[in-house]
Amino acid sequence: MRYNSFNQPIGDEVKSFQNPKNPSINTIEGKYSKLEHLNSSHVDDLFTLLCAKENDANWTYLPNEPIHDSDEFKALMNTRIESQDPYFFAIIDKATGKALGILSLLRINTKASSIEVGHIHYSSLLKRTRIATEVQYLLAKYVFETLEYRRYEWKCDSLNEPSKRAALRLGFTYEGTFRQALVYKGRTRDTDWFSITDKEWPNIKQQYEDWLDEKNFNSDGNQVNKLSIK
């Protein structure tokens, strides 16, 4: 513990602090997938997979109500293509070249060296796949190693149990609940906060890489060992 001249406890010294960078990359590539800065070429794939009525449940905890009209969806995507915060990516399956979902970096605070992953919208084809995990690894690596942020956040509706489980599985630490944090879709939302810090990243990174290794999957493509970050 450090103390100042008044014998008050103070935080650890941060040496040579520099503001991190804003997201600006077009492609982040992995073994099974890649993240591409959202553009018009992704819209048709995403409309087909995200906007069918049988997938309406995937919109419950997102800011928008389900969209079934292609022009309305294209208008939303156009605003996201132009947006710098949030900065949107399409999730691409390298085997097919198809866009399977969306995520973004948002609440970009270079002065605080803090950034959040959010607006995560996985199609049903993407859920519980290697790609679903790999893109989270790729984005976290970009945040810590290229952009050089100190803090990486995940927030979700406190009633969104799949999102909370995913955050913990991916190595985020639960920090608490902001009660009545906002109103959306005509209802109240308590927001659960999770984070990873730059000091934690090297250990978490290694566990991602061990899980993503091809040796961790059998001939049927099923995982041998679960991802359970400690």
Superfamily (CATH H level) name: Gcn5-related N-acetyltransferase (GNAT)
- How confident overall, as mean pLDDT? 96
Tally of alpha and pi helices: 5
Radius of gyration: 19 Å
Order of neighbouring strands in the sheet with most strands: 3-4-5-6-7-8-10-9
**Top CATH class:** Alpha Beta
Largest sheet: 8 strands, mixed
Number of beta-strand segments = 10
Level-2 CATH architecture? 3-Layer(aba) Sandwich
Write down the domain tally.
Answer: 1
Following the backbone from N to C, one meets helices and strands in this order, namely: EEEEHHEEEHEHEEH
Q: Report how far apart the termini are.
A: 25 Å
Shape: globular
Q: Per CATH, what is the topology? A: Aminopeptidase
Helix content: 25-40%
